[in-house]
Write a structure and sequence with these properties.
By secondary structure, this protein is an alpha+beta fold. 25% of the residues lie in helices and 23% in strands. It has a nine-stranded antiparallel sheet, sandwiched between helices. Strands 2-3-1-4-5 form a five-stranded parallel sheet, with helices on both faces. The two termini are 34 Å apart.
């Protein structure tokens, strides 16, 4: 994006436990992006600035400690705003690196006191976590996976120091669970490769092609999860979000364009995603832009009528130092999505058996579906039968070019039952039309998840009246008015053969 006419301001938070590589990471990121011609600002860690003035937590009473955290957060926000304003007025593309961010303060006080502080200052997690920063990168402490290299100024490699560092590392990561673009850089490689992985993940999110300059082994992996999912108590600490996706009209052979609305408790963030396809080699780059509520509403009328609106419940959590997103598809949706649950993560492990063994043990993984066009959200949202659709995206051909034609199947002897991986439309992906309450043909409300009905009592969201039990206001009302109930019945989708 550095060569685009429109300037980019990208705000990233580097967080993590002690001896995780944050300081070196800032330096490497700064050098890399300055070499690209970007302006780089480095926001200092506010806690270090204040604590260097003689403040000692051990000397503070509980009330003083809470007040100090509140003032620290206010100071951090003001310091960051100064740099954000400089980035806005800068004439060049600008990377702003924050040494920790607003949500890190929540790792040092109880949840109850944090909620009280938020309410007293009219703050909310969506604004402080999701809308304030473009990207969060957690640098895992050397005390977790690289113990031989862990050290501090006070003591080196003592067991109690390592244990405390691990606890601080976990708390720092947990504070950011739920941010839409949250990467964990662990110690599975040596330190130089760890730094390269940091730079590569930032470039990938911005949409910068690094070519072969960085040796990056990790890639996005997707898995089909058998429903019903376990009860909430089986999960590690998690954050749940309501997510709405709408595809916009575009020249599909050149780009896919979509809007995403994502929120908690009536607070929303908005993202515009442009997935561009290279005209000769078929490779794609995704460019994400954060939107205001007004921009989002202005773009909604550009929806592509060939696609259904996608409604999801997204659960974000960390398991064994790995960050996961669990997407639970909700009604109203196409019958092919009923009961569909997909798990996503980034991993550098190429041996499938090893990778499967490392996945969360409390989930039943049916198979890996990475790169399988039958589980592409673009294809899942299509209204047309996949057999006859000219918009079906089948990946790339042997020459690397994107394929959009009819799955490579002939038009003879059409079979109007959906068979994905050999499963008929009565059971798509192994799920019947009624799975965990997903099979209800009523469109007014969320399905049953884990035996509980989600009423999700949104109030007035950004001026839009959201009715209790109807999850996403404008999008859902438009969906109901534009589609008859029978549209959601048994699908007439031709037979699809999928290679795994």
């Amino acid at each position: 994006m550095a060569n685009q006419s429109q300037k980019t301001v990208y705000k990233i938070v580097l967080t993590g436990g002690p001896c995780g590589g944050k300081t070196t990471g800032q330096s490497r990121l700064s050098t890399f992006f300055e070499n690209l011609g970007w302006k780089v600002f480095r926001v200092p860690e506010t806690a270090t600035v204040l604590l260097s003035g003689g403040v000692k937590f051990a000397d503070l009473s509980p009330d003083e400690a809470i007040k100090f955290q509140e003032n620290l957060l206010k100071t951090m926000i003001q310091i960051e705003n100064t740099f954000f304003e400089l980035g806005r007025t800068c004439q060049r593309n600008c990377l702003i690196i924050c040494d920790r961010g607003a949500m890190d303060a929540s790792a040092f006080i109880s949840k109850e006191k944090w909620e009280t502080m938020m309410a007293a200052n009219n703050w909310n997690s969506v604004e402080l976590r999701d809308n304030r920063y473009n990207h969060i990168v957690h640098m895992v402490s050397a005390a977790n996976g690289a113990e031989d290299f862990y050290s501090t100024e006070d003591h080196a490699c003592r067991s109690e120091g390592v244990e405390l560092a691990r606890e601080l590392d976990y708390n720092a990561a947990a504070a950011w669970i739920g941010h839409p673009y949250f990467d964990v850089i662990d110690n599975s490689t040596d330190f130089d490769k760890k730094m390269n992985r940091l730079i590569a993940c930032v470039c990938q999110k911005i949409g910068i092609d690094t070519g072969d300059r960085l040796n990056v082994n990790s890639k996005k992996r997707k898995f089909l999860v058998k429903s019903p999912i376990p009860v909430d108590t089986e999960f590690p600490p998690f954050q749940d979000f309501d997510v709405v996706h709408n595809y916009l009209q575009s020249d599909l052979r050149k780009a896919q364009v979509r809007l995403r609305k994502r929120g908690q408790k009536g607070h929303w963030s908005y993202i515009h995603t442009l997935r561009k396809f290279h005209p000769t080699n078929g490779q794609s780059v995704e460019v994400r832009t954060q939107l205001t509520h007004r921009d989002y509403l202005n773009m909604l009328p550009q929806r592509d009528d060939a696609h259904f609106t996608i409604f999801k419940k997204r659960r974000c959590f960390i398991y064994n130092n790995q960050y996961y997103q669990l997407d639970i598809y909700r009604q109203p949706t196409h019958p092919r999505c009923r009961g569909l649950v997909l798990l996503e993560t980034y991993s550098a492990t190429y041996d499938q058996d090893t990778l499967i063994q490392s996945l969360p043990k409390f989930l039943t993984i049916e198979k890996e579906v990475t790169g399988d066009p039958a589980y592409s959200m673009y294809n899942l949202s299509l209204k047309e039968d996949w057999k006859t659709s000219k918009k079906y995206y089948a990946g790339t051909d042997s020459n690397g070019r994107s394929k959009w034609s009819m799955n490579g199947h002939s038009d003879s002897k059409p079979d109007h039952r959906c068979k994905v991986n050999g499963v008929s439309d009565e059971k798509v992906n192994g799920h019947s039309e009624k799975v965990n309450g997903y099979g209800s043909r009523k469109t007014g409300g969320y399905p049953n998840v884990n035996g509980h009905r989600d009423t999700n009592g949104h109030g007035h969201v950004n001026g839009a009246n959201i009715t209790n039990g109807k999850p996403h206001g404008v999008e859902l009302q438009n969906f109901q008015s534009n589609h008859r109930i029978e549209d959601l019945g048994t699908p007439k989708i031709a037979k699809v053969a999928v290679k795994t």
